[in-house]
């Protein structure tokens, strides 16, 4: 009797054990079928401030200084090459357009390297190429030499480091990210003031070569900071891709890039041609016309910071579109400018609005990225595509100036920025299901 009870107890225990094992197996099987939690689903550990985070803002400032700042300050070389070397406007602008193209295009190479955890190597290689290219530019005598040094070397090096600022900041900040990114992006506007003024003051007394070398030393001093201190917080992705194929099915992302592409065909044109416009139209003397670029870039620096205070409240996409609206309206306004005060005001407003656009451009791209592990890849893909808009942009403007004067140049700028604005507005509408007051 007792043996029977013991046997029944053992069998009952085995049944319970089998049921428990089956339940555990089912749970494991169920868990195995579920996708692993993404970083967006896990707890957000970004500090949103602190000493190390703000050091990254300083690094971002220096990176923008030597990338977008180089683009913004090319106008001084455009004028110098036309006046002193005898290049026609279209030929001179090709140097800058190739440089701008490569600063955007090379992010396609550096983005996956960043995602692979090679940030230190990327920033070091890019910084070296920028400084080396500027130093070689100081030795250039022939047109092809300017293409090799200023266009190719500085352009590729700049492309390696251009996107690192906003990308690294996204690993340190949450709600303060638009503001932090804007402060970093102000480096581009500051460079647009400092570099042209330095060249303008130095070139007549010490010559082109040494004036450019001093600009190279300025770049060296500012790029040492990110080489030493730039630190992303996120770990490399386990699977690194050069291309994120899901991006091609992301309709808001694709539409945004199409609109952005068209906008970039004309948005940089005033930075290249406003000084020549002031001189050719008799609005300003050679001395005063130079400082119009400085005014535009000062306003651009402010535009990269001030609107970002509001973008955290109203949404970076909304602020981005608002500044695009202001940009295309003011671009058409250049057509009616006939005096110096009008030109200064128009240039300042244009600089302010485009400064905000340049600051929020990568922010909006990152905001549309569904997985933080793919930020580097997505940004690289976006800027690689957008780079092809910069290649023909200023040469087209130069050809229009030769045939139709500056009215054609400003009409081109206004038309491209207007069409770009309306298409990018479609991206915002699709993303928010056409909710007008959405904090996009």
Automatic annotation (TrEMBL):
It is found in: Membrane. InterPro entries: MFS, MFS_dom, MFS_trans_sf, Proton-linked_MCT. Residues 252-440 form the Major facilitator superfamily (MFS) profile domain. The keyword Nucleotide-binding does not apply. The chain crosses the membrane at residues 51-80, 92-111, 118-137, 143-165, 177-198, 210-230, 251-273, 288-307, 319-337, 343-368, 380-400, 406-426. GO terms for molecular function: transmembrane transporter activity. Keywords: Membrane, Transmembrane, Transmembrane helix. It holds the Pfam family MFS_1. PROSITE patterns: MFS. One of its GO terms (cellular component) is membrane. The keyword Membrane applies. Its main location: membrane. It is a multi-pass membrane protein. Belongs to the major facilitator superfamily. Monocarboxylate porter (TC 2.A.1.13) family. This is Putative transporter MCH4.
